[in-house]
Design goal:
5 strands, globular, 81 residues, single chain, two-stranded antiparallel sheet, alpha+beta, binds iron/sulfur cluster
Length: 81
């Protein structure tokens, strides 16, 4: 089946922190709906299939340096959370 994910939410991870394994672990721990994972190479991996489960809790923003992660509300004119 060809499912579409990320229809309502997109998550942007800044290039400068994408390979940060400590940040990846913090994000994996913080997000209640498993949008973040530690990737095979140790960096931040976004789990596309979970994107639209985002509950807008901001825990990922709190767990990362300012500007490192953006949660974009595609349903709201691409407004950042
Ligand atoms: S706002 Fe909450 S649910 Fe959404 S990606 Fe961040 S931690 Fe996960």
């Amino acid at each position: 089946m060809n499912e579409r994910h990320g229809i309502f939410i997109r998550v942007d991870v800044d290039e400068s922190v994408r390979g940060d394994s400590k940040l990846a672990a913090r994000l994996e721990e913080a997000c209640p709906v498993d949008i973040y994972a530690v990737g095979d190479g140790g960096g931040v991996r976004i789990q596309d299939e979970n994107l639209d489960e985002c509950v807008l809790c901001r825990l990922c923003l709190d767990a990362s340096p300012p500007g490192a992660v953006r949660v974009v509300k595609l349903y709201d004119g691409d407004a950042a959370l």
